[in-house]
């Protein structure tokens, strides 16, 4: 008998997070999709439940589901400081993960980043690497970290650096072969589709999925 699950999505207003919401509500594998948000999203669906939470003091009653999809993240310019960015990019996802696990969640699927490494000298990549380690250590039946390269898609917020770099990525993509293939840009829709597919594979333990492996879902 096919058992439908409940998906928890943190970071639903972001580029990949919004794609996760759109695809999860259409997936036959999920009966409910619970979006954990600071403010209500401009999207409605019979399966979608929007839970407004304070990420500094999350209410455990609102964080109940089977699969925890985490797409939380911000930029240094938006956060205002590295301390604030670390709070959003690492502390919030782990805090939500702990509650979700305690409430019965079995899987955690994270939108990480290509190059994530807790030993990295780059603050962003080090933070993502630390987040992977912390979530993996919580004890979910499955922890899956998706590591996309440059993300394509329509963001609501304006990011000048991405506006410049994305055309360059597309220009040089044909040259990215062999070990460089994983650095090719990838659409947010593809990342979301890959994560939902991975959630249904019955994976156990920790799995890291690089960008080129995610791209097979194009």
| Domains (count) | 1
Total beta strands? 9
Order of SSEs: EHEEEHHEHEEHEHEH
Shape: globular
Oligomer: single chain
Mean pLDDT: 89
Q: What is the CATH topology assignment? A: Rossmann fold
Strand arrangement within the widest β-sheet reads: 3-2-1-4-5-6-9
Spatial separation of the terminal alpha carbons = 30 Å
Helical segment tally?
A: 7
Q: What would you say the CATH architecture is?
A: 3-Layer(aba) Sandwich
Alpha-beta content class? alpha/beta
Structure description:
The protein has 218 residues and is an alpha/beta fold. It is built from seven helices and nine strands. The mean pLDDT is 89.
How is this structure best summarized?
With 218 residues, the chain is an alpha/beta fold. Helices cover 36% and strands 20% of the residues.
How are the secondary structure elements laid out?
Blueprint: E1 5-10, H1 15-24, E2 30-37, E3 48-52, E4 67-70, H2 76-79, H3 82-102, E5 107-111, H4 123-136, E6 142-147, E7 151-152, H5 160-172, E8 186-187, H6 188-199, E9 205-210, H7 211-214
Parallel strand pairs: 1-2, 1-4, 2-3, 4-5, 5-6, 6-9, 7-8
Helix pairs in contact: 1-6, 3-4
């Amino acid at each position: 008998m096919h058992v439908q699950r409940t998906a928890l999505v943190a970071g639903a207003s972001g580029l990949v997070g919004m794609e996760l919401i759109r695809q999860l509500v259409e997936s036959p594998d999920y009966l409910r999709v619970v979006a954990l948000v600071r403010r209500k999203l401009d999207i409605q669906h019979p399966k979608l439940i929007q839970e407004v939470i304070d990420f500094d003091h999350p209410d455990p009653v609102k964080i109940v589901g089977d699969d925890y999809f985490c797409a939380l993240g911000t930029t240094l310019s938006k956060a205002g400081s590295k301390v604030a960015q670390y709070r959003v990019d690492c502390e919030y996802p782990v805090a939500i993960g702990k509650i979700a696990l305690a409430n019965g969640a079995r899987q955690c699927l994270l939108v990480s980043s290509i190059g994530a490494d807790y030993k990295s000298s780059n603050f962003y990549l080090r933070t993502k690497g630390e987040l992977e380690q912390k979530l993996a250590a919580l004890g979910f039946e499955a922890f899956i970290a998706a590591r996309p390269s440059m993300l394509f898609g329509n963001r609501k917020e304006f990011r000048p650096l991405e506006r410049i770099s994305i055309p360059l990525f597309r220009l040089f993509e044909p040259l990215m072969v062999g070990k460089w293939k994983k650095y090719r840009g990838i659409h947010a829709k593809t990342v979301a589709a890959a994560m939902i597919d991975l959630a249904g594979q019955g994976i156990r333990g920790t799995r890291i999925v690089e960008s080129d492996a995610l791209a097979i879902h194009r």
